[in-house]
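Continuing the series of single-chain predictions for the mutant panel. This is the parent chain; the variants come on the following pages.
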Amino acid sequence: MTWINKRDLFMDLLRRIASFDLFRGVPAEKLRTLLETARLRTYGAGETILGEAEPARAFYMVIDGQVKLSKDSPEGKEQTLNLLGPGEPFGMCAAFAIEAFPATAIALRPSELLLIPGTAMEAVALGEPRLLQNIIQILSERLKEAMALIESLALKELPQRLATFLLHDLAGGGAGGANRLALTISQRELAKILGATPEALSRAIRKLSNAGILAVDGRVVRILDRSALESLAGEDERG
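Parent structure:
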């Protein structure tokens, strides 16, 4: 773990985090205060960053790489909750409200994270309404995503869940273009997000491919019939 004590590194991080949603609009002097207490840590692909029920009193911010948040059932089944990239934080609830982290955080790729002590975040947030507003907004978006995930797993069949996921990525400006996605994760990881086995996901992809809705080449997905994909996801019913 590296303390941020080199001026060039410090200033580069200051510029980068100022553009992140969590810190947007927060005065530079407040960001400096946070960085002075923060540390950088690197993780290898597959390395556990924070375990479920592990004590956590820090904010974690992804600077580079990709992090997965997941939960394990008593039977050992893993459900992916979130995929986080650069600029996305986690550990907010543990830093402020509870001692134990409610999920497991794992680096999917070599990743660099900024760790800010919860006490430092709390002290700055109490005097900076914009930071509190940003935290509330991010937590609200995460809650909305969690509710959508619960609805999808409970009420939708796998092809519908896959269609919803692909459309969500397209709407979020996923790499590749308007009707082309370059997935950042393997099909095995995608299956965990969708609450399915890799074999079941392969069958669902084959079904949509045979129907002429999409074509898959490795991690690249081309949407051939977007209206059919939207109909399958149920978007036409929501208007």
